Amino acid sequence: MKFASVRLVTGDPASVDKLVYFYTRLTGVAATRPVPDFAELRIAGLVLAISTERMVQQFNAGAARAAANRSAILEFEVDDVDALHQQLGEATLDTAMPPTTMPWGNRSMLLRDPDGNVVNVFSRPMAKLQEVPHAA
């Protein structure tokens, strides 16, 4: 078995556009749009799919409800959370938690995408420090 993708279900093609813009900006990866109601971003080992609720209703009626997630967190590991936060610009983000060092050493920020899904962007600076060989 192979894990294939995570799909976010949103309201309409305009909502797909907003989510595509958010995730393209966050990841730097361009989306493919085979139809207006669907997009995919292929991000190093992950496919993030975005579709309208209309597509779900057409093929899988009642299986998902647009913008209703309150239990999953999408997580992306980056080299430098603070640099990405600065690059994206505080004023353009819906920040649930600014860059913060967690008790286990990760540097993390929580964002909300245009549909309110929580996105954790983190780095492992302590792991990088431990990888550096010490001079004898």
Automatic annotation (TrEMBL):
<protein>
    <submittedName>
        <fullName>Glyoxalase/bleomycin resistance/dioxygenase family protein</fullName>
    </submittedName>
</protein>
<dbReference type="Pfam" id="PF00903">
    <property type="entry name" value="Glyoxalase"/>
</dbReference>
<dbReference type="InterPro" id="IPR004360">
    <property type="entry name" value="Glyas_Fos-R_dOase_dom"/>
</dbReference>
<dbReference type="GO" id="GO:0051213">
    <property type="term" value="F:dioxygenase activity"/>
</dbReference>
<keyword id="KW-0560">Oxidoreductase</keyword>
<feature type="domain" description="VOC">
    <location>
        <begin position="5"/>
        <end position="124"/>
    </location>
</feature>
<dbReference type="InterPro" id="IPR037523">
    <property type="entry name" value="VOC_core"/>
</dbReference>
<dbReference type="InterPro" id="IPR029068">
    <property type="entry name" value="Glyas_Bleomycin-R_OHBP_Dase"/>
</dbReference>
<keyword id="KW-0223">Dioxygenase</keyword>
